[in-house]
Amino acid sequence: MDKIGEIEIRVIGKSGHKNLSPDNYDIKQIAAILQNIEDLLYPNNKKDRPIITYDIEEGSVKHKFKTTIQAVIGFSAILSQVQANNSIDFLELKTARAIENIQNLSRQKNYEFQIKTSLKNEYELTINPSTRFIQTEETWVEAELYFYGILRDAGGKSKANIHLDTQDYGYLAIETGQEFLKEREENLLYRRFGVRAVGLQNLETGEVDTKSLKLLELIDYSPKFDESYLNSLIEKAKSSWKKINPDEWLIDLRGGYEA
What we know:
Elements: E1 4-12, E2 14-15, E3 18-19, H1 27-41, E4 53-58, E5 61-68, H2 69-85, H3 93-109, E6 112-117, E7 125-127, E8 140-155, E9 161-166, E10 170-175, H4 178-183, E11 192-202, E12 208-220, H5 227-241, H6 246-253
Antiparallel strand pairs: 1-5, 1-6, 2-3, 4-5, 6-7, 8-9, 8-11, 9-10, 11-12
Helix pairs in contact: 1-3
């Protein structure tokens, strides 16, 4: 059995004129923390992640989470780096957003969040209305991006999307607009496509904000070996290389140096 570690998020503040406690802490505030803990611990590969268990305790309000010690060690290192750098720009997008959400909640409710793990007794990261754990907008720019995969779903009641199942980025929702889907007469589902899209990309890490994607073009993509096409390219290349000595060409490519 995997060894277990613990994460504590303590919330200090008031509910009306009373200090916070589990008895006056609204369920919406509990949900706000629960919605972000998974991205803090397991921003990737959520499908196969270990179990996270939860409890709430007195003192003002303490959220207690238990999961594998390996995840807790990694999270403890993240807390230390965020505190030392006073920044979340270096984090993966989902982790950064989860901390940013807690920062926003702190300002909205005038709460202080004190976060630590079972590896240390002291609180490793404090988030309150005076801290500024917000992503720097300048690190994210709009970029043209390409994705390849199988189109699994299309539509949406208020916001039309296609859902592309990719090997490199997982299951992507890409905004299309309803008019685009209305104009498509053929069945799009379960076919392999290339997608040209626009979305936000991190200048420093190259990470893509998969929630910002908007469709530019849907490309019919059938990756198959075409022997006749390959042979035609070889024939065309033969005439270009006919008068070239390969040994001399290699020496010239190496800058005149011959091993």
